[in-house]
Amino acid sequence: MGNVGLLYVGAVLLVNGLMLLGRVPARAAAPLNLFVGGLQCVTPTVLIIQAGGQQNAILAASGLYLFGFTYLYVGIANLAGLPPEGLGWFSLFVAGAAVVYAGISFWHDHDPVFGVIWLCWALLWALFFLVLGLGVERLTRFTGWTVVLFSLPTCAVPAFLGLTGGYHPGAGAALIAAVAAVVLLAAATLLSKRFPVREPAVSTT
């Protein structure tokens, strides 16, 4: 169930990145955020109920709420026209939590690939805090392109691999993931300077 939800997180990240770039209106992006946000709240709830008190299973499901609450917040804020500061400061909390989950992936789950992926997500939420919480508008284009470029490699690709039994974490794969993340960040920097942005809208991961 976690991989199913992660697949659609990739979709909503793509849409939200385009929203930050002004390519998708905020209200047009709201329904998908609500759908995926709801899914990412229902899924961990079911997993925790089915866990039967097993701490490792509960721990694995707990991180999904970070996505669920974020996307529900985005969807509601976009429909209601709420100011972005609350979402931005919430993103700061989520960024910190994502760093903790990265550490858990590295040292508790022995899954360095998802450790790298969690660090990528932490970076995205930190950028949302800077853009939405602190109003650092000069980072809007960079953030939008980073979200777009990270959406499939950090979500849809590992989700498909997990669903098909092709996900095999290891140090080599983690190194490839880290190098790919750096390359994508460099690409986001170049794209943010090369292509103009339309009027940005409220968005996040």
Automatic annotation (TrEMBL):
Entries under Pfam families matching the protein: AmiS_UreI (PF02293)
UniProt entry keywords in alphabetical sequence: Cell membrane, Membrane, Transmembrane, Transmembrane helix, Transport
Topology of the protein relative to the lipid bilayer: Multi-pass membrane protein
Subcellular location: Cell membrane
Membrane-crossing residue ranges in chain numbering: 6-25, 32-51, 57-80, 87-107, 113-135, 142-164, 170-191
Assigned protein family: Belongs to the AmiS/UreI family.
Record-given protein name: AmiS/UreI family transporter
